[in-house]
TrEMBL record:
<feature type="transmembrane region" description="Helical">
    <location>
        <begin position="84"/>
        <end position="103"/>
    </location>
</feature>
<keyword id="KW-0813">Transport</keyword>
<keyword id="KW-0812">Transmembrane</keyword>
<keyword id="KW-0472">Membrane</keyword>
<keyword id="KW-1133">Transmembrane helix</keyword>
<protein>
    <submittedName>
        <fullName>Multidrug efflux SMR transporter</fullName>
    </submittedName>
</protein>
<dbReference type="InterPro" id="IPR045324">
    <property type="entry name" value="Small_multidrug_res"/>
</dbReference>
<dbReference type="InterPro" id="IPR037185">
    <property type="entry name" value="EmrE-like"/>
</dbReference>
<keyword id="KW-1003">Cell membrane</keyword>
<comment type="similarity">
    <text>Belongs to the drug/metabolite transporter (DMT) superfamily. Small multidrug resistance (SMR) (TC 2.A.7.1) family.</text>
</comment>
<dbReference type="InterPro" id="IPR000390">
    <property type="entry name" value="Small_drug/metabolite_transptr"/>
</dbReference>
<feature type="transmembrane region" description="Helical">
    <location>
        <begin position="29"/>
        <end position="47"/>
    </location>
</feature>
<dbReference type="Pfam" id="PF00893">
    <property type="entry name" value="Multi_Drug_Res"/>
</dbReference>
<feature type="transmembrane region" description="Helical">
    <location>
        <begin position="59"/>
        <end position="78"/>
    </location>
</feature>
Amino acid sequence: MAWLFLVTAGIFEMFWATMMKLSEGFSKLNYSLLTIIGMIVSFYFLVKSLHALPMSLAYPIWTGIGAVGSIIIGMLFFKDHLSLLTSFFVVLLIVGIIGIKVTSGH
């Protein structure tokens, strides 16, 4: 169940980052409120995952899911472009997240 909580936390991290972008510097109230709600939900599920997972595992995976997911959302919805070198490092980030999970023993 802890892994489900952690993945959910990561998904809500992507959500709040996207809402923060849409809030245009917190000038749009609805998106600003959704940002705050997304943060609260994300932290809630991260805390739930920490009941069973060590922080040294959960935190980097949570941030990694949020980072990679936000990159994908940026490319798909905001027309962000990555250089070939940046794309290479995103792949390394994904490999690192998977490596942390696989070698953790949890």
